[in-house]
């Protein structure tokens, strides 16, 4: 039986990847962010999964506005790193896990989550930056196969926070029903508060972010009660992407153990955070 | 009957279905700029390239004038508009400054000071 061993929530701001790709992680404007990753990365290096699922949104790179799937899943053997207009990031292409993808798809459709299927998909910074946050030096390959789970967060109406959490719960059941004995990691990406356009561009809400970071661990139901409008007002028009963290959280146990979290402003125009949770039952003392 | 799903939040453009319909052709143009050969063709004849995509005249004018606010107002998604900005060597901080009435330096300083707040 497959088991979710950890969940990593992280911002996916493109400039985080660019800072790594350009060797700027010790730059005074970035050091505080990357120093905050170190404890999570050390723990993650000791807890390697067999397969990972990255919950993310595309940003006009793998898909356009012809078709806007609310939820989608990749079923490919490989996913190329997208050229977003300034050349590909110098990171490995992604190896997928079609067998697990198709299992999850069937289980989720049976539960009423009618995901769009991507048999081909170029993955952009929304996907590769979280992998880099987890594994800064992948070498020739990422640590394990990775499955993309896509969420529309850029065109209104985005799915509700409650629906995202419910999808996550169904995802958790689907993983548990997979007959292979594999360890699964889940990455929920995006956030935290930020707004890119409008007179309110540059908006950051540290109080909301702190509340969200606390509640994602201990009281996700509090976050599912918030409306789309609440997210856009409190976290900014792009901060609503934090709803993707709820899919990760839904797939995990009611009780999780926080390994590490860190909050930093700014990663370019965004409040950035990571939160790493161990999903395994605590060892008896 | 029109469906008005958008709520009014000052200073916050919401990229909803009607906005996306309005900006559809223009956002397609921005998407095409991912490819180097399209960027070259665009730069060689910006107006002609806009005509290929069937833009509304005001959308074409906004692009030719690099009127970033107008592109948003006319249905541009920030993630798509950013493709054009990147081609011009403009950062998201530059755009943030344009939208909020600041220079890029002022905007960067505001972000480094913890970001902007409501009110």
TrEMBL record, chain A:
<dbReference type="GO" id="GO:0016702">
    <property type="term" value="F:oxidoreductase activity, acting on single donors with incorporation of molecular oxygen, incorporation of two atoms of oxygen"/>
</dbReference>
<keyword id="KW-0560">Oxidoreductase</keyword>
<dbReference type="GO" id="GO:0008198">
    <property type="term" value="F:ferrous iron binding"/>
</dbReference>
<feature type="domain" description="Extradiol ring-cleavage dioxygenase class III enzyme subunit B">
    <location>
        <begin position="9"/>
        <end position="270"/>
    </location>
</feature>
<dbReference type="Pfam" id="PF02900">
    <property type="entry name" value="LigB"/>
</dbReference>
<dbReference type="InterPro" id="IPR004183">
    <property type="entry name" value="Xdiol_dOase_suB"/>
</dbReference>
<protein>
    <submittedName>
        <fullName>Protocatechuate 4,5-dioxygenase beta subunit</fullName>
    </submittedName>
</protein>
<keyword id="KW-0223">Dioxygenase</keyword>
UniProtKB/TrEMBL annotation, chain B:
<dbReference type="Pfam" id="PF07746">
    <property type="entry name" value="LigA"/>
</dbReference>
<dbReference type="InterPro" id="IPR036622">
    <property type="entry name" value="LigA_sf"/>
</dbReference>
<dbReference type="GO" id="GO:0051213">
    <property type="term" value="F:dioxygenase activity"/>
</dbReference>
<dbReference type="InterPro" id="IPR011986">
    <property type="entry name" value="Xdiol_dOase_LigA"/>
</dbReference>
<protein>
    <submittedName>
        <fullName>Protocatechuate 4,5-dioxygenase alpha subunit</fullName>
    </submittedName>
</protein>
<keyword id="KW-0560">Oxidoreductase</keyword>
<keyword id="KW-0223">Dioxygenase</keyword>
<feature type="domain" description="Extradiol ring-cleavage dioxygenase LigAB LigA subunit">
    <location>
        <begin position="26"/>
        <end position="112"/>
    </location>
</feature>
<dbReference type="InterPro" id="IPR014159">
    <property type="entry name" value="PCA_LigA"/>
</dbReference>
